[in-house]
Amino acid sequence: MFFLFLGMLILQRLGELFIARRNEKLMLSKGAVEAGQRHYKWMVMIHASFFVSLFMEVTLFHKEPAAWWWIPFSVFLLAQLARVWCLTTLGMYWNTKIIILPGAQVVARGPYKYIRHPNYCIVTLEIITIPLVFQAYFTAFLFLVLNALILSVRIPAEERALKEATDYSQRFGRKQRFIPSDKT
To answer: Is residue 177 part of a domain?
Structure first.
């Protein structure tokens, strides 16, 4: 079960990288620019290392699915539905990199109407739930911390780029960072 699950996750990520690369080429052809290049390699390394750590912890320590595996797996499945919602809502704007089209209107519909960075919330849920299915607690804890560290760099870089090149400031003003509200 573990190898099938891991294989499907890796295929999903490879598919997402294909979509991201296609979107990147399209956006760059329209005059988009990339921001946050300095931290991107660290983000990629963290995400790739997550799979290595999960594989090592589960196989070396002979981890089995928890008796309550269906709880984190159900949350994981809900996160996958939300991931598709994010990708389809952003369309050509979705990417693993920070690719900004100057003058574009910020997407404020779909999940982005309710949460500013839903994809990062989804990734965080995955980092917690995937290891919990197999009782890989070390991987869950380590990558929860590493993810928090990279997001502490990534989110400000993304918001700064959006504010400089799009209508982000006008659309969101002083609204809360993660959950947009009508309060300013």
So the answer is: no
Alpha helices, DSSP H only, in 30-136?
37-60, 70-90, 118-133
Cβ(83)–Cβ(130) under 8 Å?
no
Cβ-based neighbour number of residue 172 at 10 Å: 19
Residue 148: closest CA among 133, 127, 131 = 127
pTM over 0.85: yes
Residue span of the structural domain in which 69 resides: 2-172
Pairing status of strand 98-100 against strand 33-35: antiparallel
Residue 179 lies in a domain: no
Residue 77 lies in a domain: yes
Nearest CA-CA partner of 146 in 47, 36, 75, 17: 47
10-residue averages of pLDDT along the chain (184 residues): 95 96 98 96 97 98 97 98 97 97 93 91 97 98 98 95 91 61 45
Residues 6 or more apart from 44 whose CB is under 8 A from it?
A: 96
Return d(Cα 178, Cα 62) in angstroms, integer: 38
- We report the CATH number of the domain holding residue 88 as 1.20.120.1630
Token reading at 70 = 């269906």
